[in-house]
Amino acid sequence: MTPQPQPTFGQRLRAATQEHGPLCAGIDPHRALVESWGLTYDLDGLSAFTATCVEAFAGHVAVVKPQSAFFEAFGSRGVAVLEGAIGQLRAAGTLVLLDAKRGDIGSTMAAYAEAYLGGSAPAPADALTVSPYLGFESLRPALDTAAAHGRGVFVLALTSNPEGKDVQHARLGALSVAETMVLGAAAENVQARAAGELGSTGLVVGATVGTAVQELGLDLAAVGGPLLAPGVGAQGGTAEDLKRVFGDALPNVLPASSRDVLSAGPDVAGLRDRARATSDRLATLLA
Ligand SMILES: O=C(O)c1cc(=O)[nH]c(=O)n1[C@@H]1O[C@H](COP(=O)(O)O)[C@@H](O)[C@H]1O
């Protein structure tokens, strides 16, 4: 019997958002949030916070995005909590986008790719955020490792923080730095686009970037991959902003929200309801 080709990350993401709506729910255990849930800001509090998020989100949202920094802050035992959560979410069929924004030179990038996306990664994620400021092509090991294992990457292009534009709007000859990321991701997604499918190389474009997409003349619809839009909620990004920022690329947008959703905890049902309501609202907008 001929083995079936494994589904790509883009295919799995499309199916997940069709089933659950477009929300990417963040797990960002900030000290203030953990304490507002009545937990102590220590390893026990981190574990309890994470377990509540997993219970609320697993099987109920399309994608969960744990922010690695908040787990790394507790050292190897914090990372073990993160690895446990990744495993539980994926076992429930929920896609995990690990937000670690890794970026380095080729051989070191290859080690990061193996660590998070490889065939023998200890706790592989379905996708990883990556930082392209050592050059788009420095990401090659992550792009190739992800593709080989049906996983994805999200490349920073226009980040939601106000300082991002100092680098991302800068021009390299005719092209802005952001546009090199758009063209790089589009090239990775050519085959998927030709097949009428969502590609597995995504970009990060914040919901808070105002008119930057238009000013820089970026063709986000041509990327052919998912467009992670953080900044919804706590950073001030609204559903209306998503419309303005993304225009005809709206169907590929994966809006991400962390604090705004997490503030509905610690009650599991309350947290799940907030995530579902946010996802439903966004689904109507993106339809
Ligand atoms: O890659 C990201 O997810 C990301 C990119 C970006 O441009 N801006 C941004 O806020 N993020 C992440 O998205 C999350 C935003 O959290 P909230 O502002 O609480 O919704 C954090 O984990 C950020 O690190």
Automatic annotation (TrEMBL):
Pfam family, one: OMPdecase
Domain named Orotidine 5'-phosphate decarboxylase: residues: 22-274
EC code: 4.1.1.23
Keywords: Decarboxylase, Lyase, Pyrimidine biosynthesis
GO terms of molecular function: orotidine-5'-phosphate decarboxylase activity
Broad EC category: lyase
Family: Belongs to the OMP decarboxylase family. Type 2 subfamily.
Name used for this protein in its record: Orotidine 5'-phosphate decarboxylase
Membrane-spanning segments: none
GO biological process: 'de novo' pyrimidine nucleobase biosynthetic process; 'de novo' UMP biosynthetic process
Catalytic reaction(s) noted: orotidine 5'-phosphate + H(+) = UMP + CO2
Pathway: Pyrimidine metabolism; UMP biosynthesis via de novo pathway; UMP from orotate: step 2/2
InterPro entries from the UniProt entry: Aldolase_TIM (IPR013785), OMPdecase_AS (IPR018089), OMPdecase_type-2 (IPR011995), OMPdeCOase_dom (IPR001754), RibuloseP-bd_barrel (IPR011060)
SMART domains: OMPdecase (SM00934)
Annotated active site: 101 (proton donor)
Organism for this UniProt entry: Knoellia aerolata DSM 18566
